[in-house]
Structures are given as C-alpha cells and as structure tokens.
TrEMBL record, chain A:
The chain crosses the membrane at residues 27-46, 84-106. Keywords: Cell membrane, Hydrolase, Membrane, Transmembrane, Transmembrane helix. The keyword Plastid does not apply. It is a multi-pass membrane protein. It comes from the Bacteria. This is Effector of murein hydrolase LrgA, UPF0299 family. One of its GO terms (molecular function) is hydrolase activity. Its main location: membrane. The lineage of its organism: Bacteria, Pseudomonadati, Pseudomonadota, Gammaproteobacteria, Pseudomonadales.
Automatic annotation (TrEMBL), chain B:
The chain crosses the membrane at residues 12-33, 45-64, 70-90, 102-123, 143-173, 185-205, 217-237. It is found in: Membrane. One of its GO terms (cellular component) is membrane. It is a multi-pass membrane protein. Keywords: Membrane, Transmembrane, Transmembrane helix. The keyword Membrane applies. Its main location: membrane. The lineage of its organism: Bacteria, Pseudomonadati, Pseudomonadota, Gammaproteobacteria, Pseudomonadales. This is TIGR00659 family protein. The keyword Nucleotide-binding does not apply. It comes from the Bacteria. InterPro entries: CidB/LrgB (IPR007300). Pfam families: LrgB (PF04172).
Length: 119, 238
C-alpha cells in the first residue's frame, strides 16, 4: 500500500522534472509534480488509500527533511555577518508586518463573506 | 596491539551515511525536547539545525560534505512536495467556499511581503546582490533559488534567507497572529504558508488539517506567482 502510494508520488515528481526541462524551466520539478498530482486528483475525484497513506507518512517528516537545507546557513555565515543588521532587520520586520497583514486581511475577508452569507 | 582510533574516527565521520545519522539523531532529540517543554523557541527544525551545525564544526566537516552525506534525506523533499497536493485536494471544498478571500489575500499580501522585504533591506543599506537574493524570501527554497539566479542574486544565499524567514515565521507566527485577533484556521494557514513557506506549512499542519491545507495552498500559489511574476517585475522595473 505504502509503496504503491510512494510510486505515484515519485512518478509525479519524475514527470515534473521532465516537464521542467521540456517546457517550463521557471517552475521547479517538484512544484510541477504537485500540480500534476492535484489535477489528477481533480479528474479522479478522490484520494486512493495508498496515496493517502504515503502522503501522510511523508508529510509527517517534512520538518526532518528541511533540516539539511537549513544547515546551509553555516556556509554563508561570513556574507551574512557583513550585512548582518540590514539583513536581520529587513527579514524580521518585513516578516512580522507581512505575516500579521496576511492573517488580518484573510480574517477580515472571511468575516465579511460570512456576514454577507448570513444577511 | 595498538588500535587505530584515528582511522576509525575518520571512517565514522566521513561515512556516506554520517549526515543522515546526525540529522536523524538531532531531529529526534529536538522533537523530544519540544514535546517535553512545548516551548515555541524549541522549533524542531531550528534546534536540529543548530545541533547539526555544532556537530559539523566539532568534527571539522564542511557544509558541502554534509550536504553529500545527507543527500538520502534531501532526495525525499521532492516527493514530499508532490504529496502536498493531497491535503490541498482534501480541503478543496473549504477552499472553494473561501475562494475570493484566498485569492485577494494571496495577491495583496504576497506583493506586500516581497516589496516590503526588498525596500527595508535597501533602506538599511544592504547591497544590490543581497537585495536580489532576498526578494524571493517568502517562497519555498527550490523556487527561491531559481528566481534569485534569474534576477541576479546568489541562489544559496536566497535559500538561507528562505530558511531564516521560515523558521522565525514558524516560531512566532501562530502566537503573534492569535494575539492580533486572527483565529480562523484558514487565515492562520494562509499567513503561515504565504510568508513562511514549507516550514510554516509544517507548523500549520500541527495546528490542524484545515490550517495545513490553506498553508500548503498559499505556499504553492505564492511559489508559482513569484516564479512567474517576480522576474517579470524586476525586468520591467530596472
């Protein structure tokens, strides 16, 4: 079961990688693969048990898989220290403002839509 | 007889699975520490990252060597990204109900997040190459690296900014948002996925399935929009 689901995921990723080279170099293979799987699920109308099992198992370990790219910070320590305050300030401030803004905007729009539906 | 400790040590730290081993170990310790304390600053990704960097420095290993020996883990990032289509699909009905709020938030807040980052870094006096590496900071690292390359930044630096943004967003995002009166799981998820990409999505999945679905949606659409629109915008502007 798990293997069959995994095969689907790997197949989509491989197709995505091929399409990335053939047609859309601007989008990375995994993202194209995700869009492919999404379209496939739309056409099929349901998520099969093997696919559901494989995707929940993998997604459970998403934080673990992100550790190696995160460790990449150490390779650029010098460049970051050179512009440290500008970078740290810009990253932190823009993140704080945009995360609150995004959440606030979405919440307001949802509230408005719900009020409209109630009316 | 004399045991060759030095050779054994070298064989251990240069083994092609050493990176996988220390990452798995660090991650499990980080998870245990997080579960025990529930302290937000002990985000598993951050804690494992620090532990792995510490071990690498102590062993005198470079990131390039670690990257090779952790490749077995990194390889699965692709299929896992593909797997995000599943929660996206399962919550499609809810997303359809909130179609306009989702689309408007995505476009408006996405532009704000990107423009604000560049503008602030420029005001604070960062160099051009830093600005261009920072522009795609809110999208998942494979896209960010491609986009940074196209607009004249450094791909690896972009990945670093992406990670820092993601980790900080995941650490302070949920508490900050709730304090600001954002309670709807869809709004929480949108904010996390839009600004803190995959790390934010991993955090959003802990909040619940709906939150995770919107986060995955926001992350992937933000990625697609950034990949297509940011190089165009820079091209027209410069």
């Amino acid at each position: 079961m798990l293997l069959r689901g995994l095969s689907w995921l790997v197949l989509c990723q491989l197709l995505g990688a091929a399409l990335n080279v053939l047609l859309i170099p601007i989008l990375p293979g995994p993202i194209i693969g995700m869009l492919l799987l999404f379209v496939f699920l739309l056409l099929r109308g349901e998520v099969g048990e093997p696919l559901h099992l494989a995707s929940t198992s993998l997604l459970k370990y998403l934080p673990l898989l992100l550790v190696p790219p995160a460790v990449g910070v150490m390779a650029y320590a010098e460049d970051i220290f050179a512009d440290f305050w500008a970078i740290a300030g810009a990253l932190l401030l823009s993140l704080l403002i945009s995360i609150v803004f995004a959440g606030w905007l979405m919440q307001k729009l949802i509230d408005r839509q719900q009020r409209r539906e109630d009316a | 007889m004399s045991l060759d400790w030095h050779a054994a040590w070298q064989a251990l730290i240069h083994h092609p699975l050493f990176g996988v081993g220390i990452t798995l170990g660090a991650y499990q310790l980080a998870i245990a520490a997080y579960e025990k304390t529930r302290w937000v600053f002990l985000q598993p990704v951050l804690l494992s990252m620090l532990a792995v960097i510490g071990i690498l420095l102590a062993c005198g290993l470079t990131f390039a060597e670690y990257k090779d020996s952790a490749a077995a883990l990194t390889l699965f990032l692709g299929p896992t990204t593909v797997a995000l289509a599943v929660p996206l699909f399962l919550n499609l009905r809810r997303i359809r109900q909130l179609f306009w709020p989702t689309l408007i938030t995505l476009l408006v807040a996405g532009v704000v997040a990107t423009v604000l980052g560049i503008t602030l870094a420029w005001v604070f006096g960062a160099e051009q190459i830093m600005l261009m590496s920072m522009a795609p900071k809110s999208v998942t690292s494979p896209i960010a690296m491609l986009v940074a390359n196209q607009i004249g930044g450094i791909a690896a630096l972009a990945a670093v900014f992406v990670m820092i943004t993601g980790i900080i967003g995941a650490i302070i995002g949920p508490a900050l948002l709730k304090r600001c009166g954002v309670h709807h799981p869809a709004a929480l998820g949108m904010a996390l996925g839009l600004t803190a990409h995959a790390v934010g999505t991993a955090r959003a999945l802990q909040e619940g399935e709906e939150c995770g679905a919107f986060s995955a949606l926001a992350m992937s659409l933000m990625g697609v929009f950034t990949a297509v629109l940011l190089p165009l915008a820079i091209l027209l502007w410069l």
